[in-house]
Structures are given as structure tokens and as C-alpha cells.
Amino acid sequence: MLLSPAMFSDHHCFTLTARMSDSDEAKTSEEESQLAEQETETQEGEMTKNLKKRDLDAVEDEDSNNESSRLEKLEKKIKKETARKLETDFVLTGEEDDDALPLACSICQNPFLDPVVTNCNHYFCDKCALKHHTENDTCFVCNEPTLGLFDTAVEIKERIEEEREKARAMVKEVTAMLEKASTMADDAKGVAQKVVKMVEEIETMVEKVAAMATKAGETATMAADMVKEAEETMETAKANMSKAFVVMKSVNWNV
């Protein structure tokens, strides 16, 4: 079949149009595929970003919690060590004081009577030291030889006197507090008696007021009765007055 130039031209245009259409469709499909891939990549990037942010937030929260926990543990440790140090210092101080100047005999374990001191600086009652020396010529505490030498423990006597002064001061203070408490108790007792008396007076006043109220009620009732009686008398007087006017009109005054 032979094609005319016109038909060839039409066929050529149709072919070009078809090719262009196929190219446009391929291009459109490719662009849509690229857009879909870009959107997918964008979504994946957002998800990755969110996951990383969430992980960072979790790590920050964990670090914050760990830091708070470490601070709490450190604070507790410091408080515990401080309390332990204070307790140790107090115990050591008390032991040093007791070791330096005891208040009780190491032999009889009772407060000193005529305290004496040995050459090795240990303290005993005079009688306890002499009794022990008759049986053993060494110190009761450290077993060092005493040679029978026992000096008066002046420092122990001074400490005992200081303790006695403290005790006297405490007794005096406690006595003053007891006296003050007794005075306060007496004052409180007086106030309580006054309150009881005031309550009795108030009760008496209440009874009087109640009696007055009863009497006032009775008087009010009596007054109401009197008012009622007065009103009735007034009505009777008005009726009698009307009758008197009628009689006066009917009477011939020219007699």
C-alpha cells in the first residue's frame, strides 16, 4: 500500500505524538517514583530524628536521675560520717577526761574516799591502796611497783570539789525551779478558785435573770389582761354613752 505525502505526514505526526505521550507518561511515572522515594526518605529521616531525640532525652533523664541519686548518696554519706565523727569525738573526749581524772576508785569501783595517787599516776582510795599493798606491792592497774608510796591526789580532790559545786549549783537551780513551779501552782490554784467563784456568780446571775424573765412574763400577761379589761370597759362605756344620748333626746327639758 502506497502512502500519500499527506497520509505520511499524518502518520508521522501521530507517531511523534504517541512517542511524546509515552515519554511524558514515563517521565511522570519516574517523577512520581522519585517523589515517593523522597517522601519515604523524609519520613525515615523524621523517624530516625525522633528516635535519636527520644534516646537523647532518655539518656538525659537517666543522667539526671543518676546525678540526683549520686547527690543523695553523697549527702547521706556526709551526714553519716559527720555524725560518726561527732560521736567519736564525744566518746574520745569523755574517755580522755575519765582517764585523766577519774571519779571512782579502780579497786572498789566506788566514789573516792581520801583519794591517793601512785608513782604511775593511778588513783585509789587510801584504804583500798593500803589494803592492796599489804597483799601485793605492785599497782592494781598496771602492775608497776608502788614502793608503798601513795601521795594525796590533790587534783582528784579539786575535781571532786568542782563536781560537788556543780551538783550544788544544779540542786540550787532545781530548787529554784521547784519553788517557781510551786508558786505557779499556787497562782493556778488561786485562778482556778476565782474561776469557780466567777462560775458560781454567773450561775446565780443566770438564775436571777431567769427569775426576772419569768416575772416579766407574768407581768406582761397581767398587763395584757388589764389592757383587755380596759378595752372591754371602754366598749361598755361607749354603749352606755350611746344609751344616755338616746335618753337625753327623748326627755323634754321644758318642764
UniProtKB/TrEMBL annotation:
<feature type="coiled-coil region">
    <location>
        <begin position="153"/>
        <end position="180"/>
    </location>
</feature>
<dbReference type="InterPro" id="IPR017907">
    <property type="entry name" value="Znf_RING_CS"/>
</dbReference>
<feature type="compositionally biased region" description="Acidic residues">
    <location>
        <begin position="31"/>
        <end position="44"/>
    </location>
</feature>
<keyword id="KW-0863">Zinc-finger</keyword>
<dbReference type="GO" id="GO:0005684">
    <property type="term" value="C:U2-type spliceosomal complex"/>
</dbReference>
<dbReference type="InterPro" id="IPR001841">
    <property type="entry name" value="Znf_RING"/>
</dbReference>
<keyword id="KW-0479">Metal-binding</keyword>
<dbReference type="Pfam" id="PF13920">
    <property type="entry name" value="zf-C3HC4_3"/>
</dbReference>
<keyword id="KW-0175">Coiled coil</keyword>
<protein>
    <submittedName>
        <fullName>Zinc finger RING-type</fullName>
    </submittedName>
</protein>
<feature type="compositionally biased region" description="Basic and acidic residues">
    <location>
        <begin position="46"/>
        <end position="57"/>
    </location>
</feature>
<feature type="region of interest" description="Disordered">
    <location>
        <begin position="21"/>
        <end position="71"/>
    </location>
</feature>
<dbReference type="GO" id="GO:0034247">
    <property type="term" value="P:snoRNA splicing"/>
</dbReference>
<feature type="domain" description="RING-type">
    <location>
        <begin position="105"/>
        <end position="143"/>
    </location>
</feature>
<feature type="compositionally biased region" description="Basic and acidic residues">
    <location>
        <begin position="21"/>
        <end position="30"/>
    </location>
</feature>
<dbReference type="InterPro" id="IPR013083">
    <property type="entry name" value="Znf_RING/FYVE/PHD"/>
</dbReference>
<dbReference type="GO" id="GO:0008270">
    <property type="term" value="F:zinc ion binding"/>
</dbReference>
<keyword id="KW-0862">Zinc</keyword>
<dbReference type="InterPro" id="IPR039971">
    <property type="entry name" value="CWC24-like"/>
</dbReference>
